[in-house]
Design a protein that fits this description.
By secondary structure, the chain is an alpha/beta fold. 38% of the residues lie in helices and 18% in strands. It is built from nine helices and nine strands. β4, α7 and β5 form a beta-alpha-beta unit.
Length: 266
Amino acid sequence: MDDSLRRRAQIARAEIESGALRGTALLELLRSVPFRDRDAWTDELLGLEAPPPDIPDLPRGSVPYLPCGVDDIVAMVREVPVRPDDELVDLGSGLGRVVILAHLLSGARACGVEIQEPLVRSARARCDELGLAAVSFVHGNAAHVALDGSIFFLYAPFNGEMLASVLRRLEGVARRRPIVVCAVDLELDDVPWLRPRTTSGVSLHLYDSHVPGVPGRSHEARDPDHRCPAPRAIRRYAAGSACSPRIVPDVVGYLWPAAGVIAPAS
């Protein structure tokens, strides 16, 4: 990332801290950044530093921290869609890239659950500096802490019996309310109480809970006037309005135009 991009990120960070940069404006800024620089630029934007080393005593089934790509996060916000009245929970939240960015794009409350205390400490400090009161972090094992929310995000944070235990706890939430489980690089097609959706890319998997007696979730924005800026803006960009992006899913991510090129709408 060159100095001009870094400076743009720092200026935009000040706008986030003032409360001026959210939703549509943030999406437009993100999509203006070249794909190869987008993840690093977003970390500069949010003030996220390189993570500390993983703690030496990670429980069996835990996966070392690796941040989720920005394109997958934005796709999740668009395709769920995440709404201002949602409660998003990221299981294995690391430094907070998912919950912070999803909150800024959608207005939803967001909470990260992370077992590594140094990551939680850094994530909380970033939210304090950015002034994000609607984003919080819990230090704990996702297989043990109390879970509640309408959307749960997993970027392959654990496997084996630990994953099975977390899924049992999520089923308990789904017996009280409809939920969406969003998984990146993790397929849950064999979980009987989850129903897979078709998504626009190969790495993002979305599942709706399906529990007898619990009404399903509407996939559309609840606000008839579309006052939730991020999902509307992202849908418009994906479908094409004044211009139509040329999408290359396997090269640059399914939300973004190839090599920054936007072809005129036909």
